[in-house]
Design brief:
The protein has one domain: Aminopeptidase (3-Layer(aba) Sandwich), CATH 3.40.630.30. The protein is built from 6 helices and 7 strands. It binds coenzyme A.
Length: about 170
């Protein structure tokens, strides 16, 4: 087993709970200072689709999180906006955020959880995953099989994520 694989095995993603939200808030503020979102936004995602919300444990501490849920294709929620509910007929599996503290990066834990999200999206019979790539993360998502998609009719919502935001999709065959 390589050192990288050992690190991945040592990392531990587990289901997020309401009690984890304070730590998620702290990590979000540190990792995404330019994309502030209210506690209520994360709490609502967790309530609406707990299966898509997980935290990364390293050394007994929360070192990252992922928040994701079924959604409409090509209609990313605006930054810091409540959803109100999930669509009855979702068209994509939307990755709202994947964020790791700097010390937790580079172990493959992010790739590992993306693979789990792909599996979950397939289980839900959804034909794609999609997201808004920010923070210069487009090369990471490209490595995960995502490609830019046209952002028709969602320019204002995309703009809420800043000028370097890109709508991306990974088709599932
Ligand atoms: C994006 C993020 C989750 C990736 O985490 P990570 O721990 O570096 O990811 P992994 O270790 O699983 O790396 C997977 C691969 O992507 C590559 N990679 C990761 N970030 C990259 C980047 N910014 N540019 C290019 N390649 C990148 C890694 O080198 C690795 O390549 P390899 O498989 O050939 O070795 C992490 O950097 C992060 O939390 N960033 C801040 C928050 C953020 O921007 N999230 C995305 C919001 S849309």
């Amino acid at each position: 087993m390589s050192a990288r694989q050992a690190n991945v095995a040592g990392s531990n993603w587990r289901a997020m709970t309401v009690d984890d939200l304070a730590s998620v808030d702290v990590i979000a503020a540190r990792v995404h200072p330019s994309y502030p979102e209210d506690h209520a936004v994360f709490a609502e995602r967790l309530r609406l689709h707990a299966t898509g919300c997980r935290v990364l444990m390293t050394g007994g501490e929360i070192a990252g999180y992922v928040i994701s849920h079924p959604w409409h294709l090509g209609e990313p929620p605006a930054l810091n906006a409540l959803l109100g509910g999930l669509p009855e007929a979702a068209a994509t599996y939307y990755v709202h955020d994947l964020a790791l503290l700097p010390d937790a990066r580079g172990s493959g834990a992010a790739s590992w959880i993306v693979a789990q999200l792909v599996r979950h999206a397939r289980d839900l019979n959804l034909p794609s995953l999609s997201l808004v790539a920010v923070n210069g993360s487009t090369p990471f998502w490209t490595k995960q099989g995502f490609a830019a998609m046209a952002a028709e009719n969602c320019d204002s919502k995309l703009a809420s994520y800043g000028a370097d935001a890109h709508l991306m999709r990974r088709l599932l065959s």
